[in-house]
């Protein structure tokens, strides 16, 4: 009898562990296939499907019928409603960002992906007067028009990139209208990956300009870091020459610190230059 009870308790613990492993795997990318989840968790596909059905019933995840992928829903945030710490990348990046702005004057922003845009989760605007905005925290930026969004889109895995572009096409945000011009989007993405940095569409806001670069944890894209300057104060070429190397120094430092806190070495702090499709 005691052994039976202990065995049932052990089965229950394993079930919870499997659910947590699957939630963590879903959280690593915007969209995951069943194969992705099986490869990352090592769980049998039948078990993954049962857990996904449970998550769907609880409003934590959903399946995209168009692409056969799974993604988390906003309700998953209820699991952390009593936890107030920021993601590790923000914790690591903020001090580095503030040091830069205090030294150079220009504000920085760090953005994370959220459903169909990137959201500014850290900003150094409070540490400078060189900004047209009083704050950019929690602002949502287009994936196809804004520098931070373009940076994230260009350095996302090719399969996710295609889905994100399709999602942008359904957006009612006027800044996402460019997603319908497939040729222009392909050129923009190719240019971003070749340069290693993204620029904002100059027709959006001509008074200022932004350069954005990716931040990787191991080889996984986790955020983008952007510098904004007043256009009248500095040309694009001057900004690129002076600040792109500094931006990469900062993202390298952030990636190294993320690796250190995870007790491993970063494989590639810079975006991998490979032959993946740009669109």
From TrEMBL:
Gene3D superfamilies: 3.30.450.40, Winged helix-like DNA-binding domain superfamily/Winged helix DNA-binding domain
Protein species of origin: Rhizorhabdus dicambivorans
Domain IclR-ED: 75-260
Region annotation Disordered: where it falls in the sequence: 260-279
GO molecular function: DNA binding; DNA-binding transcription factor activity
Taxonomy, superkingdom: Bacteria
HTH iclR-type domain sequence ranges: 13-74
The protein's name: Transcriptional regulator
Record-level GO BP terms: negative regulation of DNA-templated transcription
Protein's UniProt keywords contain Cell membrane: no
Record keywords, A-Z: DNA-binding, Transcription, Transcription regulation
Annotated coiled-coil segments of the chain: none
Annotated PROSITE patterns: HTH_ICLR (PS51077), ICLR_ED (PS51078)
Higher taxonomy: Bacteria, Pseudomonadati, Pseudomonadota, Alphaproteobacteria, Sphingomonadales
A Pfam family per the record: HTH_IclR
Cited InterPro entries: GAF-like_dom_sf, HTH_MetabolicPath_Reg, Tscrpt_reg_IclR_C, Tscrpt_reg_IclR_N, WH-like_DNA-bd_sf, WH_DNA-bd_sf
